[in-house]
Amino acid sequence: MGFRKDFIWGAATASYQIEGAAFEDGKGLSVWDRFSHEPDKVFDGHNGDVACDHYHRYESDVQLMKEIGLKAYRFSISWPRVLPEGKGAVNQKGLDFYNRLIDQLLKNDIRPFVTLFHWDYPSALQALGAWENPDSVKWFEEYAALCARTFGDRVKDFITFNEPQCFIGLGYTIGVHAPGLKLPDSSLVPMSHHVLKSHGVATRALRSLVPDVRVGYAPCGDPCMPASLSPEDIEAARKAYFTVPENQGWAFNAAWWSDPAMLGCYPESGLKRLEQFLPKGWQEDLKVIHQPLDFYGQNIYNGNYFRAADNEQGFEKLPHPVGCPKTAIQWPITPEALYWGPYFLYERYKTPFIMTENGMSAHDAVSLDGKVHDPNRQDFLNRYLLAFKQAAEDGVDIRGYFHWSLMDNYEWAQGYRERFGLIHVDYETQKRILKDSAYWYRGVIESNGECL
Ligand code: GBH
After folding, report:
1. How far apart are CA 402 and CA 157, in angstroms?
2. Against a cut of 0.90, is the pTM above it?
3. Residues 6+ apart with CB under 8 A from 382
4. Distance, first Cα to last Cα, the chain
5. Is there a catalytic annotation at residue 357?
6. Nearest-atom index, ligand 1, CA of 332
């Protein structure tokens, strides 16, 4: 059995993390352009002004994708690059860049997957209250429609949002990402509602403007995995996964951000405490938020184990075992997350599943022989992909896998400290080297996962 014949093997990036050219060709500023220049926000004061200089090197970067044998490439559009003020006047030079990139991809038989929003929010709109302003829905709709009209003749796969959990949770709740705010639930809950509504109106716009479009969503939320295969532990993990926590952890929860879009309702566990903050008329909005999707994406890096417990909730979280292997960024390595995540999500949302991100950071360096040896990434990938394949064999309708990331890049608040790429980037010279894992991944793609 294994993976489908038409399985989509890809890799992913995001605009601010790779493009650079932050102040070129009429691009407007994003909250990340500002935040990364504030003192003490990012590791060693790194910023994305130049990043991987992909804006100028996209042609040779597409050749590297071809060398890896990628069938698809997921990238995001920088909203302020195409709409410098976030709305109104269009920056043609910004659109031209993405047109050239898309044409280059198609010429090389690489299917473009466009993420509309991967965190570089226009500063001009931040000044107007960003997602807290009810007009934010209309602004996003205008932006989505512009992308649909401009790219929709060639791009058929769109993703509305990348990880609302993170840009709301990290950006506006604990303030470690741009714009660095710590807002109360009375602001955050309406913001989350407006983001969800924006997802709905954008999906509707894409459908009406792009013939044969496929629309998806890419939230996250670390999967809850059963500590054993007993029915009680499996039920405990399922329940933990979709229960909204009582504290500000709600912003990172899987169900809060997916149930409205996928099922047309907010999870009861969240409404109990948060309903008081939802904007008036929220029930009506659910119709707009709940749009049929062609695929449900998820970014999964690791999960946590749960077991049944004799407490009010019926579940308890277990610590990771002592000595559990970790990636360079100190995230635990838990391959089963790629089994249980897709399994529970497909069971609940019944929508074809795509892994929109998965990967690891490692202490990669160029060796004396001029190559980059990263056996740990290869082993990570092998284990995670085996678990993912098992999910497919157990009936989850899995359509694709995007490795995070195509190349080393600006890892947000970690700057250039963390390397997640299949391709090593020397930031001084912009020289790229395919890591061993990139060649190994090519073999995985060629065999459609049979070599795992
Ligand atoms: C993604 O977010 C982003 O979409 C992407 O831009 C980014 O570069 C990439 O991942 C790598 O960071 O506390 O040890 O349990 C990642 C979302 C959410 C994944 C929190 C790890 C917890 C790790 N992350 N999660 S741990």
Report:
1. 13
2. yes
3. 452
4. 13
5. yes
6. 14
